[in-house]
Amino acid sequence: MRTSYHLMDESGPSTPSKNRIIPTESDALKEQANAIFTSILHTEVTPPSSRRPVSPTRPTTASSSTAVPPTTPTRRRIFQYNSPSASNPATPTRRLDTPTDEAYSMSPVRAESRQLLESPRRQLRSVCKTPYRVLDAPELADDFYLNLVDWSSTNVLGVGLGRCVYLWTAHNAAVSKLCDLASTNDIVSSVSWVQKGTTLAIGTLSGRLHIYDANTLQLHRSYNQAHTQRIGALAWNSHVLSSGSRDRMVHHRDVREASSKPFKRCAGHKQEVCGLKWSGDGGPQAATLASGGNDNKVCIWDLRGSKRAAGLGTGRGRSGSSSSTGEEGGAGDSPLWKFHEHTAAVKALAWDPHVSGVLATGGGTQDKHIRFWNTFNGNMLNELDTGSQVCNLIWSLTSHELVSTHGFSSTTAQNQICIWKYPNLNMVASLTGHTHRVLYLAMSPDGETIVTGAGDETLRFWNAFPKKENNEKKESRLDYGRLIR
Hints:
Structural class: mainly beta
């Protein structure tokens, strides 16, 4: 069987595990085949007890003085005639009456194994392993702490290359230069589109913050002293723009106001803030913000205030150690939750669009873990040891799957893009092609395509996810407008 199936590795069958190291290729198909092989092997080696011949038990050794002589059964009918009973299927005559009995089978395996082999198998989703488009991106920085690629809801890709920001329109592949910071001797360190896709925010190494109108390619507003050091992370929530900097601060600005000062400052990290993501559950008054830092911490912020209900206490992780602390403070100046499990910088942050309040976070080179959090109670839901530096995360919009991009690895496989099924965390596919750390990741507005960027100065486009099965908008009974004729 081992020779026939060609399934087993030298290390033995692989089973789904949260501690699996990322392989060089997708292991989903082999994992399914190995599970079937293991089941068949178990059936063949250890058949049901009803078919296993019962060996006579040898009496225990004892001295002659204590040995008990065998006794002859009394009142036992030696010859007894009766018809084969359905309650005794092991009777040879009864077995031969069954057309499917093993005595008539030419198969080398048992009936249970044949049934397993002939049963329909779960169809695995096919993912193309090669990018359908590769674009040159000269001067795309190989810096873990920057965020230089973002895809707008209007299908325009914004990319920061050195001192310039370029816009690439997906439907016609047109390229336009949005800005050039050479006159200020500055370098782009982060870009982020507003949800409507009409405005692009740009952060720089010197701590400046610029807001451009993508339609007219005109500068809308500048904050020349937004931060004292580089701005590596930006996140929009409607008209609120949040920025994270190497100065360890998170600033929130209402871009509708002309004031250069932020309306709120959040200090929860002891080192550079390199990741920011709004939950998107609602407007600025309902959503929460996740921030990741070079201090290995993840903070959850609520701009309405960080006080929790009395009695919630300190959150506990799955390991039982303290995983979060709720610090009471005024008007959102302190984090609602603070997670300490990661052992390296946390740049990768992604809110689950399918389950409210679920946050995925990824750690750097010394951590290599993806962890999942319930931000309502501060508990860790699950964790995955990827064996490789986690550079970025993004959830699929069309299926409950997660994309992770990777860099340095403790194994031979590195610089990969991996797709995981949630919540079982089985790998769907592993995509390779980049020769440097895959530091940048964005998704098309239809949710079918992802783009990845790396220090090899290329952008690669992948068909990662299927189309939405049903694009029809469900009618709400509360929508009284549809009743108007």
